[in-house]
Write a structure and sequence with these properties.
Blueprint (H helix, E strand, L loop, with lengths): L1 E5 L9 E5 L45 H8 L13 H5 L4 E5 L3 H9 L13 E4 L5 H12 L4 E4 L2 E2 L1 H7 L2 E7 L1 H14 E6 L6 H29 L4 H8 L7 H12 L8 H17 L5 H18 L8 H8 L10 E2 H7 L9 H10 L4 E5 L11 E4 L4 H9 L4 E5 L7 H21 L5 E3 L2 H6 L4 E5 L7 E4 L2 E6 L2 E4 L18 H8 L10 E3 L1 H18 L4 E5 L4 H16 L4 E5 L1 H8 L22 E4 L4 H14 L4 E5 L1 H5 L3 H20 L4 E5 L9 H21 L7 E4 L1 H11 L4 E9 L2 E6 L9 E5 L8 H9 L8 H11 L3 E5 L3 H14 L3 E5 L1 H21 L4 E8 L2 H8 L5 E4 L6 H17 L3 E6 L4 E3 L2 E3 L9 H11 L3 E4 L17 H14 L2 E4 L7 H4 L23 E6 L1 H10 L7 H23 L7
Parallel strand pairs: 1-3, 3-4, 4-5, 7-8, 10-12, 10-13, 11-12, 14-19, 14-20, 18-19, 21-23, 21-24, 22-23, 24-27, 28-29, 28-37, 29-30, 30-31, 31-32, 32-35, 35-36, 36-37
Antiparallel strand pairs: 1-2, 5-7, 6-7, 9-17, 11-25, 15-16, 16-17, 25-26, 26-27, 33-34
Helix pairs in contact: 7-9, 7-10, 7-11, 7-12, 10-11, 14-20, 15-16, 19-20, 20-21, 22-27, 24-25, 25-26, 29-30, 29-37, 31-32, 32-33, 33-34, 36-37
C-alpha cells in the first residue's frame, strides 16, 4: 500500500502525506498533511512495519521530513530498496495506493501526470480515492483504471482535524466486492467507523456530497444566527453558551461557533473547501433536476467569502460576510470584570484553616511530592524546600533518603520542543522510579509523558491559580488581575507569546486547544468554587473519586483558602487509592504540603547586608510587563546601577564574530563593575525579534539565553546576590552558568518572587539567587526588589551604627578629619581593623575644606568595605545645620550648650524636626565642656556638668537620638593631674538614656587613660579610683570623639623630612592611622564590622 495526500485544509499546495505499505508491510502517517493539519498518531498494523515518507514529482513534499526519511531508510525492512526517494520504484511493490487530495485536478496529477502513480503500479493493485469529488468523476475514473487492470474504491472521509488527529475518521466506501475485499484492512486502519455503501463506485461520494450539503448549510446557519444575535445586542459568547444547551444546537454550531466568537479563523478546514464541495452539490442538483434552494444559497455565501479574499481562512470565516453586510461584530470577547465586585459575588470561603489538617494528612500519606518544574518560577510559594537541577539516579536516591515532604526538579522544558520535552520527562520519571524502588519510597508527581512510565492515572488536574501572580479561575475562566480588574487570560499579553501563546481563556477550551482536539472541551470536568466553599474537602474527595478514569479536571480557585480545601480533598482521594497527575501553578504546591506563607526575605535575614561586592541582575524576559518594570527600575535607581545592554540582533541574528564580541565586552564590563562594588544590570535590548514560526522563535530565544549564560560564565567576581528575570533565563543561568546542582528555596524576595541559596557545588556557593518571573508584580516590583537587595550607599546609618554598638557593648570612634590624608587614614584603619567608624567634620574644618571636604568624606564612606558614616560636629547655627542636612551628612550635632535650657530645647527640637524627615540622626549636648577645640574655647568657669533632671526634660522635649554629656571631660588636653570624671553621674545618665532609647556620647576622648575608657585598674595617679571594673563603655558611652591625638600625630609626622610630597602624605597617613587603629581597639569596635 502506498498513500499520498496534499494538505486539504486551506494550505494551498500544502503538505504531502505519503504512506506506503507493500507486501513487506509498514503503515505510517506523517504529522502534517491530511485535513490541513496534523495526523498526530502512528498506525502500525499487526505484522507490518513502518514504510516510507516520500514525494511525487509535482507534489510538494512535507517540510523538514529529512530526519524521518533517514530514520526509515536505516530500517532493516527497507534495505532491499535502493532509495526511498524513488517513488516509482517503490510503487512497483505497492498493493494499495491511498490518494487523499483536495480536488479532481490534483487526483489527476497524482495518478496520470508526469511520473504518475498509474504507470508504475503493478497489475491488480487497488487505489483508494479518499477525496471529496463528484460521483461522475469517480465513475469515469473507475472505467479508466479498469483499462489499466487496476481496481478503485471510492472512500471519502469525514471527521475533520480532530478525528484525523486521533485516527477516528468516518469512511464511506463503495466499489466492487473484489476491490472492497482487497482494501478492507487498510480502510479499517484508517477509520473508527467504516461504512460500506452499496451501489458501486460513486455511491460513497454521493453520501459524502449529502454530508457536505448539511455541513455547509449548518456552518452558514451558525454564522447567520450569531450575526443576528449580535444585531439584537446580545453578547454572542453568552448566546453561544445558551444555544449549545438547547434543542437549537448542532455539531457544527458547537464546533465552528467558537471560531466565530473568538474571531479566530486559523484554517482547520478552509472556506474554499466548501466553495468546491457545495459547487459539486449545485452541479449535481442541476443535472438531476432537484431544486436545492438552501444548499445553493449556502454555496453562494461561501463563494462570496472566497471572492472577498477569505478563501484560505477557516470555513467559519463565512461569518465575515454577514459582518460586512450588517456592520455588526460577531466576536464575543469575555468581559473584563471588576475584581472587587466579582470576589464579593462568590460564596463565603470555607470557614476552617486547613493547614494543620493537611500537614496531618500528609503524614498519613507518606509519599513525598515531586514537582517537575519547567522553569524555576514554580518555586514561588514555598520555603525550606530543595531544588535539584540534575536527575541522575544517584542524586534522586540521595534526595529520597532525606525523606522530604517535597522537592523540585528543574527541567527547563519550556525551552524544548514538544518531542524533546516529552522525552526528557520520560527520562526523569524512569530515574525517579528506579531511585524510589532502591529506597523503598512511593511518591506523587506533579506534571502527559509521566503516564507512559508511571502507569495510568485517575485524572489529570489543571490548576493555574496563583494569588501572588494575580491568577484566578472562576467559572472555568482563567483571569489575570490588572490593578482593580480581572482580564480574561486569553486577552492578555502573555497569551500572545510567540512560542507559548494561546487563545482560550475558558480552561475547558484551553485544554482542547493545547491538545489539538485530542481532549474535547465538553469532556473536561471541573471543581467549582461553590463546591469548594460549600462542600469542603469531603465534597472535593467525593467529586474526584467519581471522575471517569483518565479524565481531565479544571480546578476553580479565587483564594488560598480554596486551594487548601482542594488540596485536602485531593489527599483524601489519594488515601483511597486514587492517582492524579497535576499540572498547576505554584500555589498548589504550598497548599498540597501545608506550607504557610512567610514575609519576604531581606539581605539582613541572610546576614549579607554588610557585604560590599556588587549584585548581578540579569534581564532576559522580553514580555511587555518586564519592559515596564525595567523602565521603572531605571527611573528609580538608574544612577545607582551599572547598565550593560546586550544587542539581541547581534547575539541572535548576526555573525558568530559579532556575537562573540558582544558577549566578551559585556562580560568584561560586568566583571569590572562587580569588583568595584557596583550593582550591575545585564539586560537584553528591548526590541522583540520573533521567528516566522514557534520553533524559529524558540531558536532565537535559545540564542539570546545562551548568550546571557556565556556572559555570566565569564564573570569571575563573586556577586553579592544574583537576580535573574524571566523563567527560561533564570533556569539557564542557574544550571548552565552557575553549575547549580542543588539549591535551597529560602523563601521569597517579594510575593511570587522565589529566593534560593545556591548549593555547595555551585560556582558561587551560598550566594542568594532571586528568580524573578517575567509575569509577576506591578510595574514597580523589580525596582522594589532591587532596592531591597542592592548594595546601599552606606552599609549602615548613623543610628544603626550606634545601636549596634549598644547591643554589642562597645563604642565607635568619631574622628575629626581636615584633609584627604585624614580621611584616608580613618578608612584604612577601619578596614584593617574591620571596625565601624565615623568621619567627623568640625565647623572650622568645613570653613577651610568646604564642600569638597564633605564630598570626599561621603565618597569614602560609600566605597568603604566597612560601615562608615559622616557626622557634622558642633553646629551652633540653625541656618548652618539646616544647610548641612542638605549636604548628605548621616548625622549632625546641635550644639546649644551655650544657651539657657529652654532656648536650647527649642533650638534643638527645630533641627530634630527637619533632620528626622530625612532619617538623619541628631546628637545634642547638655552641660558644657571646658577647653579648646579648633577655634572654639570655653573657659573653665563657664563649664558645667550635665544635670540628670534637665537631661530627662531635654530628651523628652527634643526627640534627639544621641546625647553628648559633660561629666568632667574636656576638649583638648587634660591637665597634668589628669581627668576628673564623675562616673556615678555617667551611670545615672546611662540608666536614663537606656529608658529613653538615647545613645550616650563623650567628647574629649583624646588623653583619657585607657583604664578609664575600658578595662579598669586601681590607680592613684589621677583623681579617680575605679572599682568593680567601672569605666565609660561599661556605663553606656557608645561614641567617643577623638581629635587632638590624631592632629598631633599629623603635625609630628611633618617634622620628619621626606624626599617628596608623596612621602610626606604617606608618612602623615601612617601616623594618623596608627592612632586611629589603637583607639578602635581600645573602644572595642575592632572586628565588629565582620
Amino acid at each position: 500500500m502506498y498513500m499520498t495526500g496534499l494538505g486539504v485544509g486551506g494550505l494551498g499546495k500544502g503538505s504531502v502525506l505519503v504512506v506506503g505499505v507493500g507486501s513487506k508491510g509498514g503503515f505510517v502517517f506523517s504529522r502534517r498533511g491530511v485535513c490541513g493539519v496534523s495526523w498526530a498518531f502512528l498506525v502500525v498494523l499487526t505484522g507490518l512495519c513502518v514504510a516510507a515518507l516520500v514525494g511525487l514529482k509535482g507534489v510538494e513534499v512535507i517540510p523538514r521530513i529529512g530526519d524521518q526519511i533517514a530514520e526509515i531508510e536505516r530500517r532493516d525492512d527497507f534495505r532491499e530498496l535502493d532509495s526511498l526517494s524513488n517513488p516509482q520504484k517503490l510503487l512497483t511493490r505497492v498493493d494499495v495506493l491511498v490518494v487523499m487530495v483536495t480536488n479532481e485536478a490534483q487526483a489527476e496529477s497524482v495518478l496520470f501526470g508526469d511520473l504518475g502513480a498509474v504507470q508504475a503500479l503493478s497489475a491488480g493493485a487497488a487505489i483508494i480515492l479518499s477525496s471529496t469529488v463528484s460521483p461522475a468523476y469517480v465513475n469515469q475514473l473507475e472505467q479508466r483504471l479498469l483499462g489499466q487492470n487496476l481496481n478503485l474504491v471510492d472512500a471519502p472521509v469525514s471527521g475533520g482535524v480532530k478525528k484525523a488527529s486521533s485516527g477516528t475518521l468516518t469512511v464511506m466506501a463503495s466499489g466492487t466486492n473484489d476491490a472492497l475485499e482487497q482494501c478492507v484492512s487498510v480502510l479499517s486502519a484508517l477509520s473508527e467507523k467504516l461504512y460500506i455503501i452499496k451501489g458501486g463506485c460513486g455511491a460513497g461520494s454521493c453520501v459524502k456530497m449529502v454530508n457536505q450539503l448539511l455541513a455547509g448549510v449548518h456552518i452558514v446557519s451558525t454564522a447567520e444566527a450569531l450575526a443576528f444575535g449580535a444585531r439584537l445586542g446580545l453578547h454572542t459568547r453568552k448566546l453561544f453558551e445558551v444555544i449549545t444547551n438547547t434543542s437549537g444546537t448542532s455539531w457544527m454550531l458547537e464546533n465552528r461557533g467558537p471560531h466565530m466568537v473568538d474571531n479566530d479563523f486559523t484554517p482547520y478546514s478552509a472556506l474554499n473547501i466548501f466553495v468546491k464541495d457545495l459547487g459539486i452539490v449545485s452541479h449535481e442538483c442541476s443535472s438531476r433536476k432537484v431544486p436545492l434552494h438552501v444548499a445553493v444559497m449556502a454555496h453562494q455565501l461561501f463563494l462570496a467569502g472566497s471572492a472577498a479574499g477569505w478563501g484560505v481562512l477557516d470555513d467559519a470565516a463565512v461569518v465575515k460576510f454577514y459582518e460586512s453586510l450588517t456592520g455588526v461584530t460577531v466576536e464575543g470577547r469575555l468581559p473584563v470584570l471588576s475584581k472587587e465586585q466579582k470576589m464579593k459575588s462568590l460564596p463565603p470561603e470555607w470557614p476552617q484553616d486547613l493547614t494543620t489538617d493537611i500537614i496531618n494528612l500528609c503524614e498519613n500519606n507518606v509519599k513525598p511530592l515531586v514537582v517537575l518544574d519547567d522553569d524555576p518560577t514554580g518555586t514561588q510559594t514555598v520555603h525550606d524546600i530543595e531544588v535539584l537541577t540534575e536527575w541522575n539516579v544517584g542524586a534522586l536516591v540521595d534526595q529520597f533518603k532525606k525523606k522530604p515532604k517535597c522537592f523540585f526538579i528543574l527541567t527547563n522544558s519550556r525551552a524544548l520542543s514538544s518531542e524533546k520535552a516529552t522525552a526528557l520527562v520520560v527520562e526523569i520519571c524512569c530515574n525517579l522510579q528506579t531511585a524510589a524502588k532502591s529506597t523503598d519510597t512511593e511518591f506523587t508527581v506533579e506534571t502527559d509523558a509521566v503516564v507512559s512510565v508511571l502507569g495510568d492515572i485517575d485524572a489529570c488536574i489543571i490548576c493555574p491559580f496563583f494569588l501572588q501572580g494575580g491568577r484566578f479561575t472562576i467559572g472555568d475562566i482563567h483571569y489575570v488581575a490588572e490593578a482593580d480588574s480581572l482580564l480574561p487570560a486569553g486577552d492578555t499579553e502573555f497569551a500572545k507569546d510567540s512560542a507559548f501563546g494561546y487563545r482560550s481563556s475558558n480552561l475547558r477550551e484551553w485544554v482542547e486547544e493545547k491538545t489539538e482536539g485530542r481532549i474535547v472541551a465538553s469532556s473536561v470536568a471541573s471543581v467549582s468554587i461553590e463546591l469548594l466553599r460549600k462542600g469542603g474537602p469531603n465534597a472535593v474527595c467525593e467529586h474526584l473519586c467519581s471522575l471517569e478514569k483518565g479524565s481531565t479536571c479544571i480546578i476553580n480557585s479565587a483564594s488560598e483558602s480554596d486551594m487548601s480545601v482542594f488540596a485536602a480533598g485531593m489527599i483524601l482521594a489519594e488515601l483511597k487509592g486514587k492517582r492524579f497527575l497535576c499540572r498547576t501553578a505554584a500555589s498548589f504546591v504550598s497548599a498540597r504540603i501545608g506550607i504557610a506563607s512567610r514575609p519576604p526575605i531581606s539581605p539582613k535575614d541572610l546576614g549579607i547586608h554588610k557585604e560590599i561586592n556588587g549584585g548581578l541582575i540579569i534581564v532576559g524576559s522580553y514580555v511587555p510587563k518586564t519592559t515596564r518594570q525595567v523602565e521603572e527600575l531605571k527611573a528609580q535607581l538608574g544612577h545607582a546601577l551599572r547598565w550593560i545592554e546586550i544587542s539581541v540582533d547581534k547575539v541572535a541574528m548576526k555573525s558568530s564574530e559579532d556575537r562573540e564580541t558582544e558577549i566578551n565586552q559585556a562580560a568584561e564590563l560586568a566583571d569590572i563593575s562587580l569588583r568595584t562594588w557596583m550593582d550591575t544590570v545585564v539586560m537584553t535590548s528591548r526590541e522583540l525579534i520573533s521567528g516566522t514560526t514557534a520553533s524559529e522563535s524558540l531558536e532565537i530565544n535559545f540564542k539570546v539565553s545562551s548568550a546571557l549564560v556565556e556572559i555570566v560564565r565569564r564573570i569571575n567576581s563573586r556577586p553579592r546576590y544574583i537576580l535573574a528575570k524571566g523563567g527560561i533565563t533564570s533556569s539557564d543561568i542557574a544550571t548552565k552558568a552557575l553549575n547549580t546542582k542543588l539549591a535551597k528555596i529560602v523563601g521569597q524576595a517579594l510575593a511570587g518572587v522565589p529566593l534560593w541559596q545556591l548549593g555547595s557545588d555551585s560556582r558561587h556557593p551560598g550566594v542568594p539567587y532571586i528568580v524573578f518571573p517575567g509575569n509577576v508584580g506591578d510595574h514597580t516590583a523589580l525596582a522594589e526588589v532591587v532596592k531591597s537587595w542592592a548594595r546601599p550607599a552606606k552599609l549602615s546609618s548613623a543610628k544603626e551604627l550606634l545601636l549596634d554598638a549598644e547591643k554589642g557593648g562597645y563604642a565607635v570612634g568619631a574622628f575629626n578629619v581636615y584633609n584627604l590624608e585624614g580621611i584616608a587614614s580613618v578608612v584604612a584603619a577601619a578596614e584593617e581593623e574591620h571596625s565601624p567608624a565615623i568621619l567627623q567634620i568640625h565647623p572650622a574644618a568645613l570653613k577651610e575644606g568646604g564642600i569638597p571636604l564633605v564630598a570626599c568624606c561621603l565618597s569614602a564612606a560609600e566605597h568603604a568595605s566597612v560601615p562608615l558614616t559622616v557626622h557634622f560636629d558642633h553646629g551652633t547655627s540653625k541656618q548652618e545645620l539646616l544647610e548641612m542636612l542638605e549636604r548628605g551628612f548621616d548625622s549632625v550635632m546641635v550644639d546649644g550648650s551655650h544657651l539657657p535650657l529652654e532656648e536650647n530645647i527649642l533650638y534643638t527640637k527645630c533641627v530634630v524636626h527637619f533632620a528626622h524627615q530625612k532619617d538623619i540622626c541628631v546628637e545634642a549636648e547638655l552641660g558644657r565642656l571646658s577647653g579648646a577645640e579648633d577655634d572654639l574655647t570655653v573657659e573653665e568657669y563657664e563649664a558645667r556638668l550635665t544635670d540628670i533632671d534637665e537631661a530627662e526634660e531635654f530628651i523628652d522635649k527634643t526627640g534627639i537620638d544621641a546625647l553628648a554629656v559633660c561629666i568632667g571631660n574636656v576638649h583638648g588636653k587634660y591637665p597634668a593631674t589628669g581627668p576628673n570624671l564623675k562616673l556615678d553621674l555617667l551611670k545615672d545618665l546611662h540608666a536614663l538614656a537606656s529608658r529613653k532609647g538615647v545613645i550616650l556620647v563623650l567628647h574629649g576622648a583624646s588623653g583619657l587613660p585607657k583604664e578609664l575608657i575600658k578595662n579598669a585598674v586601681f590607680s592613684s595617679s589621677y583623681h579617680y579610683i575605679l572599682l568593680n571594673e567601672q569605666n565609660c563603655i561599661e556605663h553606656g558611652v557608645r561614641k567617643f570623639n577623638v581629635n587632638t591625638e590624631v592632629r598631633k600625630a599629623f603635625m609630628d609626622s611633618l617634622t620628619k623630612p621626606g624626599k617628596d610630597l608623596v612621602n610626606v602624605m604617606t608618612s602623615a597617613k601612617d601616623a594618623m592611622k596608627a592612632v586611629v587603629a589603637e583607639k578602635m581597639r581600645l573602644f572595642g569596635s575592632s572586628g565588629k564590622a565582620l
